[in-house]
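thread from #wetlab-drylab

HS: before we spend reagent money on co-crystallization trials with 2-acetamido-2-deoxy-beta-D-glucopyranose, can we at least see a predicted complex? here's what I'd submit
DV: go for it
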Amino acid sequence: MAAPKSFLIMLYFVCGFSIALAATPNITMDQSALLSLKAHISFDPQNHLTNNWTTNTSVCNWVGVICGSRHYRVMVLNLSFMGLVGIIPPHIGNLSFLVSLSIQNNSFHGSIPIELSHLTRLKFFHFGYNEFNGAIPSQMGSLTKLRKLFLHNNNFLGTIPPSLSNISSLQIISLGYNQLSGTIPSSIFKISSLQEIYLGSNMLYGGLSTHMFDRLPNLQYLSLSNNQLSSELPKIGNLTMLTELDLRDNNFEGRLDPEIGNLTMLKELHLTDNNFEGLIPNQIGNLKDLEVLRIGGNAFFGTIPFGIFNISTIRVISMAVNNLSGHLPSNMGLFLPKLQQLILWGNKLSGAIPNSISNASQLAIIDIGDIPKTIGGLKDLTNLSLAINRLEGSIPVSFGEMVSLEFLDLSDNILSGEIPKSLEGLHYLKYLNLSFNKLQGEIPTRGPFLNFSAAAFMSNKALCGATRLNVPPCEEGGPHKKKTTWPNMLRYVLLAIGFIMLTLTLAFAWKRWKKRNPKSLAQADLYPLVTWRRISHQQLVQAMNGFSSNNLLGEGSFGSVYHGTLSDGMNIAVKIMNMQVKGAFKSFDVECEVLRNIRHRNLVKIISICNDIDFKALVLEYMPNGNLEIWLHSQDHYLNMLQRLNIMIDIASALEYLHHGYSTTIIHCDLKPSNVLLDEEMVAHVADFGMAKLLGDRDSMMQTMTLATFGYMAPEYGSEGVVSTRGDVYSYGILLMETFTRKKPTDGMFIGEMTLKHWVDESLLTSILDIVDANLLRNEKEHAAMEDCISSVMRLALDCCAESPTQRIDIKNVSATLKKLKSKLVLHIRTS
Ligand SMILES: *[C@@H]1O[C@H](CO)[C@@H](O)[C@H](O)[C@H]1NC(C)=O
Ligand SMILES: *[C@@H]1O[C@H](CO)[C@@H](O)[C@H](O)[C@H]1NC(C)=O
Ligand SMILES: *[C@@H]1O[C@H](CO)[C@@H](O)[C@H](O)[C@H]1NC(C)=O
Ligand SMILES: *[C@@H]1O[C@H](CO)[C@@H](O)[C@H](O)[C@H]1NC(C)=O
Ligand SMILES: *[C@@H]1O[C@H](CO)[C@@H](O)[C@H](O)[C@H]1NC(C)=O
Ligand SMILES: *[C@@H]1O[C@H](CO)[C@@H](O)[C@H](O)[C@H]1NC(C)=O
Ligand SMILES: *[C@@H]1O[C@H](CO)[C@@H](O)[C@H](O)[C@H]1NC(C)=O
Ligand SMILES: *[C@@H]1O[C@H](CO)[C@@H](O)[C@H](O)[C@H]1NC(C)=O
Ligand SMILES: *[C@@H]1O[C@H](CO)[C@@H](O)[C@H](O)[C@H]1NC(C)=O
Ligand SMILES: *[C@@H]1O[C@H](CO)[C@@H](O)[C@H](O)[C@H]1NC(C)=O
Ligand SMILES: *[C@@H]1O[C@H](CO)[C@@H](O)[C@H](O)[C@H]1NC(C)=O
Ligand SMILES: *[C@H]1O[C@@H](CO)[C@H](O)[C@@H](O)[C@@H]1NC(C)=O
């Protein structure tokens, strides 16, 4: 005992504390340290300390305190789970015999006093789940006896101090869920006693060196998830005791080391959402104890090693969104008695789902990307989601045999045909979503269908049934029951001939068009150019019921837009120029010029032009879902997160095409919500090219008067009349902010310095959820993923809206970034 005493005395001497100088430290000093702590607690909701920590009884009887039986000094201080609010005073550093200090799950804030580094006997240190901030003091490295260090779920800032590597017998280091940044000091990984490392959910970046994991023979748990680490994975073959490896949500790249197969104790492997590529090593099949395998959202290619389907302990196989190909082995289900989740959508797998899948008797969630016709055998399946795929064909009748089904989501596919009546027999079905498909016919009425609402069926081709489902009533007998009679047959034959001729015409036009337009990007999204329909003035007037006000869709600066139906039933929108207005003539010419030359999935399509001397009209594709303005700002309209992302991706694709996809650069100049139209599948189409500018081959900008819309207009349009692609990017940025906040840039709350842009900018420093459209936050469960995604979207929006045009991001990068955010969100929603 002599050494610590003299050490302390020396310490006090050095610090110049006269009281301590005179005496050997004893329990009185511990008492004053604890009373100082009590004095720094501002709220003690359950009065744990208020009436208990009093001087008329020994410190050793106080709640949360344990003293050593020999030396009668405080050895253990445990104030966990007491709801205390306060700060830790430096006096705690005087509890020199303390071995265990635990204050987890309270609301302590402030920083860790460096005096705690005097507690050199400490073995256990738990400050988890509090509100500490500031840096982790590097002096903590002198707590060399420490075995377990928990600082997770606080707000610690700064870097991980390399000095922690001096704690040579550390077993657990847990720093997750803070705001630590910088690189991970490699010296930490030299502590060979480490058993568990938790550094997840921080802002750590940089790489890991190849031999970083060489000397951790005791490591059982390693989590670095949700950081920005980017490098190849270090050699992992020596981590022989590892049971769980969690690297999800980083930027790790390169191949997965085949020595993964040496980690035979591994139970969970999480690599989701990184940039891993190459083949999945066959050696994964050697992991005989593996229970969870999640490697979705990477770029793995090749076939799935069949050995995986021989791991009898496996519960979860999730490989969604990779580039995997090949088929599944026909016996895949035979040896998977514990399998609960099989998630493979977003790959390029071929072949059928093997029947043997029905032997996997625990399987509860399948998300494969193709509807297995034999799926009916899965009598114990409770949860089936095949949503957001490109599934075609009809819903198999055998679905009715999955009698345990409680949750069935087939939304956002291309499913057609009727809803099988057999689904009425799914008595446990509580949730059904068939929206956004091309289903038709009668919605079944019995069994679970009595309880479903309109949302389950919205946006399909031609469903009919009960009025409470917002669908038209079914006609007696139903259209599908008609017999095929001779005249009908004839009609089909004629139709077929017509179709062949049309195909030939299209092919011819397409070839000619391609010849003329050698520089065309994103061809998959382009329509072949078809010659315009001839529509006479007379036909137009008829189609619009003689310009009836019932048909008026809207009025713009240069004219009005009407809805009409041609005699063959085709719906059209007709934009009629008001030639009295100055500039209308020019606007018409520009719009004709633009629309004549371009075709893209996300631009409004022109059907015909009426160019008489006194009557000028554009006949356009009719968009039954109106415009984005309505969907954002009218009552009874609601867009979910994914729909908003899709719409913004559509608009970005359109701009990318206008800016880069055609020999002449086209600048829209008037991007705003009312110029974004939505078709029946909620695909966005950019419209209104009346103010567009066409730049010649070499120009990158032009100077001109532009009358773009206030609020969306780039600052340089107004001040210098400079028009460039970057101006569209600015408007796009504003549109992004508006779409997710549901606040117009012209909202009354924005006055003076406080613009939509500044408001968003500031919220990124505090809480983005404060400014997000509250409608998006209805689903509590998704908050964290949502917050992540929206913050990234808003950062992107600010990059679009940089004050200086040259600093604005290119629209190409915008659409790429948004697509990535979308797949990340989708992945999260569907793998969590
Ligand atoms: C502890 O030390 C103080 C000051 O030296 C002394 O007054 C006190 O009596 C001591 N208490 C015990 C319990 O030894
Ligand atoms: C100690 O003092 C407090 C008031 O200061 C009193 O409520 C409590 O009963 C006392 N306890 C003992 C054991 O004397
Ligand atoms: C303080 O709490 C401890 C442990 O709950 C209890 O044994 C002791 O009697 C309490 N002391 C007072 C003064 O209430
Ligand atoms: C501290 O107390 C809590 C609750 O009383 C208990 O669960 C925990 O194990 C204790 N921790 C230590 C290190 O003694
Ligand atoms: C500690 O607090 C966190 C957050 O308040 C909570 O999630 C966690 O369950 C708590 N831990 C325990 C063991 O109560
Ligand atoms: C570890 O401790 C040694 C000796 O006390 C000291 O020299 C060294 O600077 C410490 N290492 C770090 C990284 O702080
Ligand atoms: C594994 O450990 C051995 C023995 O300590 C060592 O020689 C080797 O370099 C380590 N690394 C790898 C990747 O094998
Ligand atoms: C991994 O296993 C292979 C085959 O058993 C062996 O050759 C190799 O040395 C092992 N690697 C390590 C690092 O132990
Ligand atoms: C899986 O196990 C079966 C039966 O034990 C065996 O026939 C097959 O070869 C194994 N497949 C792989 C890839 O190990
Ligand atoms: C997918 O893998 C194939 C080879 O199997 C490769 O040619 C292609 O580029 C990969 N696609 C992506 C998006 O990684
Ligand atoms: C798989 O299921 C079929 C039909 O239920 C059964 O006949 C067969 O024995 C099962 N095979 C295994 C290996 O469990
Ligand atoms: C020990 O803690 C310091 C603060 O770190 C105080 O200033 C000292 O007064 C205290 N010493 C005693 C004997 O309580």
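DV: The domain at 14-206 is CATH 3.80.10.10 (Leucine-rich repeat, LRR (right-handed beta-alpha superhelix)).
HS: ok that's useful, forwarding to the group
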